[in-house]
């Protein structure tokens, strides 16, 4: 709440007032900020400065006037959860237990997965969301069509995941059923948007984060000792390109992205070669002289 109050006083009010001046409104004109009825926001009564006021929507109606809550976020979340479950099943298939996978699925990996899920949200989904809010803007009945399309997408995700599960020998995963996958897709439907934590809960979270960070640091030390060489990485890129070219879903842009990475690696190779040559030149020359001398000794 303190952060939001500071944002309102120091950022929103000056920016809103500047916008009013740009569009030719009077300096003292009233400005109204509409807010979600969310516990994380301070009371609207204290958000007032220089004729700038705030007002909250009635409870439980915010989702009716926000396009993201008309199926866009649902689409993005379902795609992210599908990626997470596929990664988990792949890890189990390679001998990694679920608990270990959860530790390896870092915030960085999650951020990439969320970004990819957002990019995968279709234009039809976003158009359908706006159609629900503003039917007059689109003459076609896309709202019902969008809902059916999204449901079919989740059904397909569930079916594909179940086929993957049934192909795995692991007993811990073979018990996964359709109802479990559907629960994952729907688990945050009624989740609160804000929490009120006690001092003890906050302290426990901080201590757990410190312990988790120490564990991550130890794993980073181990992983940094196993650095893959540039030459080997280039070979891996070649193998990856060869494998991706055999997949129907791969686009030319996907292949080009791997080629660009390979080019960057190849640009580093001459530098690495020079470094190795300078550091080992005398050693190699000494070994060659020793080998030549040994060949000239009688009896060898």
UniProtKB/TrEMBL annotation:
<dbReference type="InterPro" id="IPR004875">
    <property type="entry name" value="DDE_SF_endonuclease_dom"/>
</dbReference>
<dbReference type="InterPro" id="IPR050863">
    <property type="entry name" value="CenT-Element_Derived"/>
</dbReference>
<dbReference type="GO" id="GO:0003677">
    <property type="term" value="F:DNA binding"/>
</dbReference>
<dbReference type="Pfam" id="PF03184">
    <property type="entry name" value="DDE_1"/>
</dbReference>
<protein>
    <recommendedName>
        <fullName>DDE-1 domain-containing protein</fullName>
    </recommendedName>
</protein>
<dbReference type="GO" id="GO:0005634">
    <property type="term" value="C:nucleus"/>
</dbReference>
<feature type="domain" description="DDE-1">
    <location>
        <begin position="2"/>
        <end position="130"/>
    </location>
</feature>
